[in-house]
Amino acid sequence: MRITYLLILSVALLSFACANPAANKPKASVSNAAPEGNSAKPAGAETLTISPDNSKVDFVAAKVTRSHNGSFKRFSGAIDLTNNKPEDSRVSLDIEANSIETDEPDLTKHLQTPDFFDVAKFPKATFVSTKIEPTTSGGTHNITGNFELHGIKKAITFPATIQITPDNVTVNAEFAINRKDWGLLYPGKADDLIRDGVVIKLTVNAPRKK
Length: 210
Description:
Helix content is 11%, strand content 50%. It has helices at 2-17, 105-111, and strands at residues 29-32, 46-50, 55-62, 67-72, 75-82, 85-96, 100-102, 124-134, 141-149, 152-164, 168-178, 188-189, 192-193, 197-207.
């Protein structure tokens, strides 16, 4: 009986360790990059600053055997809030690729190499929204924009919860992308392959000027 219990416990722990963190997250839709139109600030927009002081850019990636938590520590961006409406507004974000940090120092260094982000060749990742639409599922809005990573620019659409108050604008999103869509093809070790899905977690809390 004790042996059976230990076997069941071992299988349960192994299954948990091997779980795919992207499996139960909304999948961002991906297509060819869309025209970004006029890059100037929208007329009458109120610009709110996005920075590491008020926001986070986190991710979860996984191998067959375990997952890893990571984040980007240096980034800058803005919300151009227009008419107090998300759908009239625009968000942009520039991320310094070499500011990546994970729960293992050796992994952090490896992610900076040409096997992955190749930060010397591609020092920045960028996102510029092209459309924000209300939705009734998976958050309050769907955000569409061009996401450039590893020298590849594609349009993505993902769900987000956006709240506008007199004090701040918050944007919270958690969704999965396929790393191979941006040319991150390193397979990992033969006995410990890297999963394609990566969970992106965005937490923005941009203060409004008073």
